[in-house]
Amino acid sequence: MSKISKFKGTGVAIVTPFTKNGSIDFSALEKLINHIIKGGVEYIVVLGTTGESVTLSKEEKEEIVNFVKKKVNKRVPIVLGLGGNNTHEIVSALKKGKFDGIDAFLSVSPYYNKPNQTGIYEHYKAIAKASPLPIILYNVPGRTSSNMTASTTLKLAKDFKNIIAIKEASGNLEQCMKIIKYRPKDFLVISGDDMLTLPIIASGGDGVISVVANAFPKDFSEMTRQIIAGNLKEAQKLHYKLTDITELLFADGNPGGIKAALKNLKITGDAVRLPLVNVNTQVEKGIEKLVKSYK
Question: Which residue among 8, 31, 61, 167 is the active-site one?
Fold first, then answer.
């Protein structure tokens, strides 16, 4: 398997289950891992946004990563979320860390600082030079307050061989298509938006890192495989089967929505850590209704 082929298809940004008292629910995490892998996904992403990584201590993060590696047991590749707005800190972590059992890093574009495109490029340049593993860029302007342009993405893709992909969550299909059109041969464009997965792959993209697939891995990964194979009608059926629940899962924030669905599926609880709170009652009832009627 090539260094990029393992990241084609469906990756899942897994939630971090918590008990009612706020501690990590490792029993539920194991159940979730097995549910996702049984659903046929291609890889798992741990400690991403959906995993509420910013609310976890360093010790908790280490515990989670070690637990996930043990329970996955090499059944699928593992991508580790390792990014932030302190370039020096990330570089230091890359140089000092032990990353056995990890296949790649997912590194978000710097948030809050709002660097210009030169700053974003230099940030990733420093990370690429320090990284012992392949890097998946992550552009999510809705959370970072700055967009990594297609030009910056393409320059990074061409300048650094270990930058192998981008998770594109700008919501801008024109930008995604520009990256797809001009990217180097061995560079993946991965949807970071569940609802836009079908059109991005239909435009030449390579897969998705999904939130919804925490709950519905079988249908979501099959939809992704069908559109990659060019089977548009089969992919459309699954896409539209998932659209109502997908919309509702993000109606009052992520990961509150997906945790509500997982609670209804009896896979994990719905506890989140402050400053996040559970979804509102109306959304919760809507999710419960859709999950119960989902076949």
Answer: 167
Considering the candidates 31, 43, 138, 259, report the single residue annotated as catalytic.
Answer: 138
DSSP one-letter string for 173-220: HHHHHHHHHH--TT-EEEES-GGGHHHHHHTT--EEEESGGGT-HHHH
Is 31 one of the catalytic residues?
no
Q: Which DSSP string corresponds to 62-128?
A: HHHHHHHHHHHTTSS-EEEE---S-HHHHHHHHHH---TT--EEEEEPP-SS---HHHHHHHHHHHH
Which is it for the CA torsion 196, 237, 13, 287, positive or negative?
A: positive
Give 41-95 pLDDT, tens digit per residue: 999 999 999 999 999 999 999 999 999 999 999 999 999 999 999 999 999 999 9
Domains of the chain, first to last: 5-232 (3.20.20.70)
pLDDT digits (tens, 9 = 90+) for 123-167: 999 999 999 999 999 999 999 999 999 999 999 999 999 999 999
**What does residue 163 show for φ and ψ, rounded to 5 degrees?**
-90, 105
Number of H helices, E strands in the chain: 12, 8
CB 122 within 8 A of CB 91: no
Q: Is 138 designated active site?
A: yes
Longest distance between any two alpha carbons in the chain, whole Å: 49
Tokens of residue 160, six digits: 């650094």
- Whether pTM > 0.85 for this model: the answer is yes
